[in-house]
# Entry
Amino acid sequence: MNYDKDFWDKYANENESRFNAEFAKFVKDLAVSLRCSSVLEIGCGTGIDLRLFPETMDIHGVDLNEIAIDFAKEKLPRSHFKKSSIVDLPFEDSSIDFVFTHQLLNYLDDDILEKGVSEMYRVAKRYIMNCERYDESEKQINENSRFRNMQKRWQDYKVKIVSNVDMHEEIDPDKSRFTLLRKLE
# Structure
C-alpha cells in the first residue's frame, strides 16, 4: 500500500477515540515486567499506547503522519517522537529493549512488511512484540489492510517465540494476535 496521506490524516484525527486503557496498561506492564528501560512503538499514531509508561523509561515513537507525531509530542513531551518509516528506523543496531507494533503491519504491503521486520530486528536489543489482526492465510480484511501471521514472518530470524496467542477481548476488542519474541544473540 502506498502512503495515502488523506487516509492517515483522518486516522490520526480519530486516533484519540481509539485509546484503550486496558491495552496500554498491558503493554506497559509487560515491558516493565521484562525489565526494559527503553521502548519503541512503530506506527505510534498520537502515542495512545505509550501514555501509561513510567517517566523513568526512555520512550520512543515513530510514525509517517505529521499530524499524529505533532499530537504525540504535545501529549507526551518527555518522550521522543520522530517522523519515520518502518523501513528506515532512525536508531542504532540493538539499541531499544522493547520494540512493538499494534495493528500497523496489517496495513503494509508484503515487501514493506519484509523490510520492516528486518528493521525491527535490527534495532531491537531484547524483545519484539507484534499485536496484529491475525489469519493464517493473511487474507484481505478490506481495501486498506490484510490479516497477518507474524509468527511465520519471524521464522528466518534468531528469535525465540515467547508467546503467539490471541489477545483477550477485554484487552483488545479486535482480539489481535499477540506475538512476543526474545531476540537471541
Remarks:
- The helical segments are 5-14, 21-33, 66-75, 110-123, 150-153.
- The chain has one domain: 5-174.
- The mean pLDDT is 92.
- Residues 13 and 92 are 31 Å apart (CA to CA).
